[in-house]
Automatic annotation (TrEMBL):
Residues spanning the membrane: none
Adenosine deaminase domain ranges (all copies): 5-319
Pfam families: A_deaminase (PF00962)
Name of the protein in its database record: adenosine deaminase
Record keywords: Hydrolase, Metal-binding, Zinc
Amino-acid biosynthesis listed as a keyword: no
Family: Belongs to the metallo-dependent hydrolases superfamily. Adenosine and AMP deaminases family.
GO BP terms: adenosine catabolic process; hypoxanthine salvage; inosine biosynthetic process
Cofactor(s) recorded in Swiss-Prot or TrEMBL: Zn(2+)
Gene Ontology MF: a single term: adenosine deaminase activity
GO cellular component assignments: cytosol
Length: 347
């Protein structure tokens, strides 16, 4: 029985390195020649970077091959791994649809094609043999023009059967010069009834208090308990949840070791702020969600009770989970009902 929820996973960073390498071997002569053997590609793809911007450059490597034709191929393998190896019952996939359209087309042509990308992703996630509830979060991007980002918000509102929320991504240090613009876009999203999250307070350079009131969840948010703990009571009052992605902070150079997250968890628990533990880019990290859990436990960042609280929080704050309880509670109720029925039959 799948038991877990991942609320923060990027479509571009979700492709595990071996699957991506095999794709390049078959379809990309340049990459195949550059990495003739798998170990060399894995080392390149998963190694730590010095900054978040350097790390995000890896997304472009995958975005260019996630096209209308190939998205079903990558998504099927993503779902298969998530169900079999991660025990996921619920997954929110986030991405910028504009970046999956052909870059030789005009901006207006690419905007017109975004709905097709969302539909392809939505249809590809309906895999009967791996029953995971999957919804999409569409990402505005810090390096895309206003017209494209507004079109992404409009698209999210028009395709609610596939899309559960919007986000802003692209490196939080790049928001500053366009902060008023993003505040306006989030206000517009709220007027359309959209749910919201956003990459914020991930690095010391991405701390914009002006955006906080417009978010139902905070993508990463670790700098709040680390550097601005005075904000935590308000975060708790607004019932905002932090989407904490442990391995990311090592891969981007944001933290030097995992144990630095202990302050994040301790201060959030003390303030009554929920945390959902997520993978962010499971493929780039070559680390699946249960290993994120295990790493936090074995390095004494959290204990088992805190882990359970985070797992429950993930379902409680999931934008499209259709039940009042997490699957473990549903399974317990089912087993109890079966036990009662069996007892009645035996009597």
């Amino acid at each position: 029985m799948a038991l877990y929820a991942d609320l923060h996973r990027h479509l571009g960073g979700s492709v595990v390195p071996r699957i991506l390498w095999r794709y390049f071997k078959r379809h990309d002569v340049e990459m195949a020649q550059r990495f003739p053997e798998y170990p060399g590609f894995e080392e390149f793809y998963t190694r730590e970077r010095k900054t978040l911007d350097e790390y995000l450059e890896l997304h472009t490597l995958v975005e260019k091959v996630q096209t209308e034709d190939t998205l079903p191929y990558f998504i099927y393998r993503l779902i298969r791994g998530a169900y079999i190896f991660e025990n996921l019952a619920y997954l929110e996939l986030r991405y910028t649809p504009y970046l999956r359209t052909p870059d030789h087309l005009s901006q207006s042509e690419r905007i017109d094609l975004m709905a097709n990308i969302v539909a392809i992703v939505g249809q590809a996630t309906q895999v009967k043999e791996y029953p995971i509830i999957i919804s999409q979060i569409l990402c505005m991007h810090s390096r895309l023009p206003y017209e494209v980002n507004k079109a992404i918000v409009d698209l999210a509102a028009s395709m609610g059967h596939y899309v559960c929320a919007i986000d802003v991504a692209g490196g939080d240090s790049h928001y500053a010069e366009r902060l008023e613009e993003f505040v306006g876009l989030y206000q517009y999203a709220h007027s359309l009834g959209l749910k919201t999250t956003g990459h914020l307070y991930e690095t010391p350079h991405g701390c914009y208090r002006e955006l906080l009131p417009y978010l139902q969840r905070i993508g990463h948010g670790i700098q709040i308990p680390l550097k601005y703990p005075e904000l935590l009571p308000e975060i708790a009052r607004l019932n905002q949840c932090l989407e904490v992605c442990p391995t990311t902070y090592l891969k981007t150079g944001t933290l030097q070791n995992l144990h630095q997250l202990k302050v994040v968890f301790d201060r959030c628990f003390e303030a009554g702020v929920d945390i959902a533990i997520c993978t962010d880019n499971a493929g780039l990290h070559n680390v699946r969600l249960p290993f994120e859990y295990e790493n936090l436990l074995t390095q004494d960042v959290i204990d088992f009770d805190q882990l359970q609280a985070c797992q429950d929080a993930a379902f409680r704050h999931a934008f499209a989970w259709p039940y009042q309880q997490p699957p473990a509670s549903l399974l317990t109720g089912l087993l109890q009902d079966n036990s009662t029925t069996l007892s009645q039959v035996m009597a």
